[in-house]
Each structure stands twice: as C-alpha cells, then as structure tokens.
Hints:
With about 250 residues, the chain is α/β, with parallel strands linked by helices. It has helices spanning about 40-50, 70-75, 95-105, 110-125, 140-150, 170-185, 195-205, 220-225, 235-245; strands at about 5-15, 15-25, 30-35, 55-60, 65, 80, 155-160, 190-195, 205-210, 215-220. A hairpin with a 2-residue loop joins strand 9 (about 205-210) and strand 10. Helix 5 (about 140-150) runs parallel beside helix 6. Adenosine-5'-diphosphate binds near residues 13, 39 and 44.
Amino acid sequence: MTSLSLSSVCKAYGELVALEDVSLAFTPNCITAIIGRSGCGKSTLLRMCNGLTRPDSGEVMVFQQALDYASLPALRKRIGYAVQGTGLFPHLTVRANISLLAELENWSKPAIDQRLEQLLTLTQLQQSHLAKYPHQLSGGQQQRVGLCRAMMLSPELLLLDEPFAAIDPLTRMDIQEQLLALHEAEPVTTVLVTHDMQEALLLADEIVIMEAGRVVQAISKTRLLEQYPGQEPNRLLLSLMAGAGA
Length: 246
Ligand code: ADP
Ligand code: MG
C-alpha cells in the first residue's frame, strides 16, 4: 500500500498556477523521479508531501492518512528531506548537522554513533569529516552530509529536491551510486526531484514528467525503455512531453 499519494491537488500563487489537478500515488520502497523544466512545479509538489506547502484544494495522504497540518513536527520525523544547496547549518559541525534530529529525539550517544557510522560507510564519508564545518568540505561531500542528515532517523519517506544539481558530473556519478547503495541497503519510498533525465533513468524506478503544473506522464522506467528503446535521455524527455501535449 502506498505511503504517499496526492489527489486532485491544486496550488496557485496569485495568478500563477503552480500545480493543477495533480494526482499521484508513489510506489512503496521505490525511487520515483519527478522531472520537468525549471518552474514547472516540482519543488511545490515535493513541499506538498511534507506539509511545507498546503494545497488550495485536493488532498495529500501520508502514511494512509490525510496530512494533518496540526501535527507536522511528529510527521516530519518520519520524512527525510534534503534540498538543493544542502541546507546544512554552517555554524554546526558535520557530526552536529547529521545527528541534530537524533539528539532532539534523545537518542543515546552509542545509538547516534552507530547510526553515524552506518551512514558514513554507505555514503563513503570519513570519520575525519565529522569534526569539520560544512564550508570545509567540497560540494559533493556536503551533499552526502545532507543525505546522511535526511536518513538519520531512518525515515519511511525520503524527499530529495535536486540534490545533485550543483555538483560536477564526475562527483555526481559517485553520489548517485551512493544513493543507490543507500537505497539498496535501506529501501525507502523516495521522491527525487530532478531536471536531468539521465539522472532520472539512472536512479528511478518510476518516472513522473511535469509541465506547467501538470503531470503529463507517470510511467515505470521499464515500460519507458521498452516503448522508446535506445533513445538519448533528453530526446526521450522531449518526445514524452510532446506526445502528452498532442
Ligand atoms: P520547480 O521546482 O519545478 O522549478 P517550483 O515548484 O519551485 O518549480 O515553482 C513553480 C512555480 O510557482 C514557479 O513559477 C514559481 O515561480 C512559483 N512559486 C513557487 N513558490 C512560490 C512562492 N512561495 N510564491 C510565489 N510563487 C511561487
Ligand atoms: Mg525546484
């Protein structure tokens, strides 16, 4: 059963329609990529999923219940969220950034250390990184720290907003592989916002294509590759958008 779905969700900012009648059910323990041009509503959709943005109409169901805006703090413990540009606290060490939520949950020090160790291994960060501050790390390392922070409490849902967009292509490949390793070790329902079709095809099981606030396609990667064998990723994306608009 899906732990996350949206039904007929609409959202406007004044005259601007950011989401128009979006209905989606996310496949449990799979990675779903949300892909589309800049401004098409991807981040708005992601923020709907953890209550940071409220729909004007329609409903968001999380963990089989209509999202309860009165109990967001409790809910967000079960939802990992990583944003573009990492969103790390600059004045906190890497250790403090990653373990902050566990500290707030009163985890014991051994429990925190054990979870840190697991996450560092999976994302190929070193113990020596823990004492550093975010600005002392490379962009790619910061991104991994953001991923560790989002995964610290073993959330049931993981929301990633263009997590690798600002990273050079080679480092991005490393982190993409680490995300896959992390996902294999700890499968969790993941929504990955990206504008990169190559990334979507590499990481995702399901692909959702958006254009101007609407979902124009929601299709499994397997079916997509069957239907369009051997297409270059961006051409594939364009033909899917064109096909849907026709
Ligand atoms: P994407 O993540 O796909 O680039 P967004 O979801 O951030 O797109 O934005 C969708 C549209 O809604 C854009 O036109 C954006 O300018 C607008 N928008 C997003 N957030 C706000 C906001 N808080 N106030 C006004 N307009 C917004
Ligand atoms: Mg965005």
